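Hi there. Long-time user, first ticket. I'm pasting a complex I've been working with (about 416 residues overall). I'd like to know whether the download I got is complete or cut off, because the file seemed smaller than I expected. Thanks.
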Amino acid sequence: MRVLVPFAAERPKTRLADALSRPERRSFAAAMLDDVLAALRGAGFSPELLTTERVDRDVTQTVDERPLTAAVNDALAEHGAGPDDPVGVVMADLALATPRAVSRLSAGGDVVVAAGRGGGTNALAVRHPAFRVDYHGASFLDHLRAARRVGASVRELDSRRLAVDVDERADLAEVLLHGDGAAHDWLRDAGFELDADGGRVTATRTRR
Amino acid sequence: MRVLVPFAAERPKTRLADALSRPERRSFAAAMLDDVLAALRGAGFSPELLTTERVDRDVTQTVDERPLTAAVNDALAEHGAGPDDPVGVVMADLALATPRAVSRLSAGGDVVVAAGRGGGTNALAVRHPAFRVDYHGASFLDHLRAARRVGASVRELDSRRLAVDVDERADLAEVLLHGDGAAHDWLRDAGFELDADGGRVTATRTRR
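Hi, the file is complete. Here it is re-exported in full:
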């Protein structure tokens, strides 16, 4: 399956600004991208970057500076996804993605959708030519509605690993706990450790 | 499969104190328990309450006032879990649990484990007589180690629905977004609605 990986190359993850400097956020985002690409390749998929500017990666890249929704929908329209020719869309910050988790995008259903926390949509497989995305707001519910509107069947991909998109400081603990790739190593190298004092484990930085 | 559902009947969910009064927390916790029991029964499992005091539910109940770990380990020791006689342990606050999600506890593996956020362990299936739990701190990693120590194979149950234990205000949005049972209805009836203004959708209370 061809899988689009949207990537905001120039705009680092701003909601991590309380934990990481701007250059650090760029570097950490690149590590997460590497993990996602590795998981997709490990599942036998063909990842393609849909990126706001060219990045130094050995992967097919389409440069599109527009917002996420417009860029993805143009790619979907161009591809004309169908039952035998699905297109995946997988976010670049799923640092816990594994080949096993992303391979579940191959399950039947015109639209296979993995929710993120807070109502987002972290991964999709589209097998219906009329389905379009809308990533604004609570996109998961919007995508269920959009599928119904075009008569596409929906299958929920129920994965914790794909539900964790790393946006906020609290998410870093999940990477330390469950990651084993580049993003995990990046955080360790940057001095982050698990802190098990509170109700849930958090990530604290012990050095810079 | 026999599935233990630990339930702290008298101590409401204290970390929800900023969102719900004490009687409300008791009532909401009971609604979540109903959802978990329904999901387990829907999967063909036999749920049993391991509760700190008797509750008004038509379900087998063992009353044990001790902390979670001691109570569960005694139940595991008494049962003597084996390959053909597994025991499940599923938390009572998994308001997004569905029959499909919990049925994945039947997958092979001496210990099947579903992580919660922040390093917790939300669901287990135990098929090894020597495996014991320790819910203190980052229990997920501890349970991986405990399985290794007794030579038990481990399978990760990668489920977002089982990863969401409802402890904190931020978790309420997940119930509004993805729940369709008693807990979801309880929150709606109590005046909670989704608020899609921020980066992630949150739950706000519009009335009392």
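A couple of notes from our side: The beta strands of chain A are 2-7, 46-51, 61-63, 87-90, 111-115, 121-126, 154-156, 192-195, 202-205. The longest strand of chain A covers residues 2-7.
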